[in-house]
Amino acid sequence: MILGFFYWAVAGLFITVIGSLLYWLLPKKYSINCGRFILSRAFRFFINYLKITRLLILDDDDLKVLAKTPGPIIVAPNHIALWDAVFIIAQIPELICLMKGSILRNPFLGGGARLAGYIPNDSVSQMLLSASHRLKKGAKLLYFPEGTRTRPNADWLNPFTKGIALLSRYSSAPIIPIYIRSNSRIFEKNRPFFLKPEFPLKISFTVGKPVEYVKGENIKLFSKELEASYIAELSKPHPLRRVPVK
Known about the structure:
Blueprint: H1 2-25, H2 28-52, E1 56-59, H3 61-66, E2 73-77, H4 84-91, E3 95-99, H5 101-104, H6 110-115, E4 119-120, H7 124-136, E5 140-142, H8 163-171, E6 175-182, E7 201-207, H9 219-234
Parallel strand pairs: 1-7, 2-5, 2-6, 3-4, 3-5
Antiparallel strand pairs: 6-7
């Protein structure tokens, strides 16, 4: 695992340097495709390394099927760990990630993310405007409805922000729920990096049925009902069902 972290530090810094150069040198339509290709391949290499070394048992078959879905969609996972997006983007490279502006400025991730055309969430209104515009042009977006990683003491997830409902309303794009489960608390919010997890790590991704916003529906109610549907799914009996820290 330490070697995996070392790879990520070196690869991340290399991607940032190369990504920053290509961001300024290439025309936008080419730079975005290039950025997404570079990131997805780097992510796949990292995941394959973890699987080959038997550090990871991964069930992501649903993501491979979702990658073939045509048209604009809002991919909306719960957010249990810092690296959730890595597994999803590895299988669906064309996703545009809505992410913290601080990550776009991060020396190990920023260059590649900017090159791939990812959208910062520093300004919520600007983020929604930009994301809706891209969805209307047929883009696929990755959006975490919780806004941040699930708190350790939360039963199933954090309360949803209204952003996911507003995005669906403005763009008319369907929301595709993704339910992430794991036997590990690695990279969970507020968990120290030096704590050794139990291996192998087991992570499962399950894709739910599309959810569409109905014109005229109350945004707050829609968001609450969407959140309730996630809780109903995540609370079902499952080998990797979450156990909250009390």
